[in-house]
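ok trying this again, last paste got cut off
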Amino acid sequence: MGGGSYVDMCAAFGVHSASVYRAVWDVVDAVNSSPALALDFQVEDCTRRAAYAARFKAQRNSPFGNVIGALDGIAVQQEQPLATDVTCVADYYSRKGFYALSVQAICDADYKFRWMSCKSPGSAHDSSAFTGTNLGQALLHPENPLAARLIQAGHCISADEAYAASEVLAVPWPGGGKGDRWRDSYNFYLSSLRIHIEQAFGMLVWRWGVFWRPLRVPFVKRPGLVRACFRLHNFCRDHSTEGVAPFGDDRSGGSVFFLRNDAVNSDQRGRRRDRERSLLRVRMTERVEELGLVRPGVAPMY
């Protein structure tokens, strides 16, 4: 998973390649079945939500004390699936120009993944991939008990422009606020919280070299491999003796690239983001205006 070659492992341990692969999948299965390594968002627990929100506020000295997680998607590159493995091979060809799996994830302020889903093909838009999950379905409908509790408590999840604004998902104003200084400031301070998921993805990709090239393992095993890397990332974060910087002991010098998934403009895909209504976004913008906070580099009002 760190990027090593099975050829080197066979030579180092004096075993057949089949033994190496068997050991890899035994470990992957053990990681995914271990309760101690489970992703424990526990969004239903009001105490946990309050703890998440407090950490985000403290980490970034943010004016928002209601953000409990940062949501985004990453396109995990893979080799072309076989026609015998999937219903439609073209569904897995992303607009990035390669075959991929669309992985959705939510992290906390400490860069630990609290929830993830790897069930959508690479061509799926981030918003569609998220609403296709059980959590996305629950948060999509305000009458859902989970969504209702979040709305009542004022808690939300920060996301980028690829997701639709709602009373649970805090997304930026389209067009950079279109000249409104308070909307622009809201976008800035929301971005400072949302950056956590981007950084968590960066740590994940740097640490696990398996993401540095297209996944070549059997198609049915790819989601499990990805899920195991997410769980092991959290294990590394729990046992890290360093601060935020995660790269001190990692391999360097590889040819690495990292692509954001579905970072689209406001005029793409025929979606009118300026018509989306969200009282949550309005309240958070009013909070910034009430505190008189503008983004750095913008002259304050007197």
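PB: full thing came through this time. The mean pLDDT is 86.
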